[in-house]
Amino acid sequence: MCDLCNEISRRTFLGTSAALSGGLMFGGLSESAAASPVIGSEWEPLPPVRVYVVFLGLAAGWPSTRFDPEREIQYVFKPCFDKAARNLGDVEFIGGDLIPQGIDATNALLPKIAEQNADAILVVHFSCANTDAQFAAFASTGLPTAIYARPYAGHEWTYVAELQREGAKQGMKIISSFSRDLNEVERLVGLLRVPKRMKNAKLIVLGNPGCAAGTIEACDYGKVKEKFGTEVIHVTPDEFVEMHRSIPDKDAVAEAEEYWINMAQDIWEPSREEIIKSCKTHLATRKLMKERGARALCMKCLGGIPIDILGYPCLGFSHILDDGAIGACEADMDSTLNMMMMLYATGLPGFITDPVMDYAKNAVIHAHCVSTTKMDGPQSPRLPFIIRSHLEDNLGAALRVIVDRDIDREVTWTKLAHNDVILAATGKLIEDYNLDDRGCRTRMVCEVTSSTARELFEKWGGNVIGRDIMSRLHRTLFYGNHMDNFRDIAQLLGLKFMVEGKDWA
To answer: At what angle do helices 183-200 and 483-493 cross, to 10 degrees?
Structure first.
């Protein structure tokens, strides 16, 4: 081993087992650091994702002859990691080694990373000298690996895109960001959670055998397990009815009054009894999810459950989404898996939609009768809403969520296809469509920004979807521009990424 490699032990600021909060350079995180987990407080906390941090490169000509890596760690990155730990809430930073350039230094560190049972690696690149081989060595562990560098860390950034492309063929999972914006560290770390969370996740499909909808591979529970590690649990309507019977009526009444009736801007078609019926189904759904250890459930709701007993699940799905888990309609596996990825990455809920084109506004109208009232996540204020019937049959209780206050917000809508491709497009919310009583109850008019409405129409599905209408139709909408997030999620999960309306397979 080279002499420089002996620097590893002297320059390890976190110790072999200490988290960032206990190390010499990163000491002092308060106990409140885990106050904002991705999954809302209603659910059992998930074990933290252990991210091993490596600072790569000692003083050199680049970025400057005066560059002091230890000072950089203390005064630039310590506050950055403290903030990320507080905001993410379910990440444990370990390691913190400052190592020199050279593959020997990396090879000497890899056994230590393995001993620490790391779930992912974050490499903070400080200075240059053939560190591209070190990037590859970290990624070759099979662990999700992120590379972050501020400007002028070195020239090795020129190798990273090629490493991502070629490494993906060998199973490497590499994402990167080269930016002066230190918030990118938190974004990358948030994304590094996704592979572990998907691997450990359980997804309930509620309906009769064969009810799962979406692209063929997503409806094959074995292929979902093989691709993502996610366990799919099938529950029949009869089993669920038994769960429903166990819910006390008084709990459903309290839920209806406190979360819906008292908070609604108005109530149109549904009776109080219909709302209570929906709330009993919600409480049964939540009980089922907790008993099975699942954070996500999709249900064959239209024609797949006894509505006379259960009512409609729309209100319940909304409340589950509000609380930081997933309730999805129409047994849509593509959309449910898609929402799981984004929830684990950012904490944001998705809005499953039936999109229609509106050339007059260069827009897509995204509409459905199920929507969260907290589009910005569990900690955000609720959007105003009116309780209405399900529009297609004028039965049950559903929501018209009013998004007027969010006009001009950027949005992203996506489609997971065949467990293999993520299609994504972006837009700007320009209107809460309420001109007539057509379509579904919640309707967001979104001007297309990643292409045009005409281009989106012409390249809808990117030639990767097939002819099944559910697969062609549903998209999942998220607040914010998440093109980079979905590119990186695709990279981490071994998926292809396509801009819908631009790319064509």
So the answer is: 40
pTM (2 d.p.): 0.92
Pairing of strands 442-448, 421-432: antiparallel
Rounded Cα distance between 125 and 122, Å, is 10
Read off the amino acid at residue 481: N
Cβ pair 355, 477 in contact under 8 A: no
Q: Is the peptide bond before 151 cis (omega within 30 degrees of 0)?
A: no
Contact 361, 430 (CB under 8 A): yes
Question: Within a 10 A sphere around the Cβ of 405, how many other Cβ atoms?
Answer: 10
Pairing label, strands 174-178, 91-99: unpaired
Q: How many CB atoms lie within 10 A of CB 245?
A: 10
Task: CATH number for 201-499: choose from 3.90.1530, 3.40.50, 1.10.240, 3.20.14.
Answer: 3.20.14
Bridge partner list, 97: 12, 54
Q: Would you write out the chain's pLDDT as a tens digit for each of its 505 residues?
A: 344 344 444 345 443 333 333 333 444 332 333 334 444 557 888 899 999 999 999 876 788 888 899 999 999 999 999 999 999 999 999 999 999 989 999 999 999 999 999 999 999 999 887 788 999 999 999 999 999 999 998 888 999 999 999 988 999 999 999 999 999 999 999 999 999 999 999 999 999 999 999 999 999 999 999 999 999 999 999 999 999 999 999 999 999 999 999 999 999 999 999 999 999 999 999 999 999 999 999 999 888 899 999 999 999 999 999 999 999 999 999 999 999 999 999 999 999 999 999 999 999 999 988 999 999 999 999 999 999 988 778 889 999 999 999 999 999 999 999 999 999 999 999 999 876 677 778 899 999 999 999 999 999 999 999 888 888 889 999 999 999 999 999 999 999 999 999 999 9
C-alpha separations of 410 from 421, 481, 483 in Å: 23, 6, 11
d(CA 425, CA 499): 6
User: How far, in Å, CA of 344 to CA of 153, rounded?
Assistant: 30
Locate all alpha helices (DSSP H) within 297-390, ordered by sequence. 307-310, 314-322, 333-346
305 contacts 316 by C-beta, under 8 angstroms: no
Q: Where are the beta strands (DSSP E) in 333-440?
A: 351-358, 363-368, 385-390, 395-401, 410-417, 421-432
What are the residue ranges spanned by the domains of the chain? 3-198, 201-499
Q: Which two tokens stand for residue 436?
A: 């007539």
**By C-alpha distance, which of 139, 153, 152, 151 is closest to 56?**
153
Q: For domain 3-198, give its CATH number from 3.40.980.10, 3.50.50.60, 3.40.50.280, 3.40.50.2000.
A: 3.40.50.280
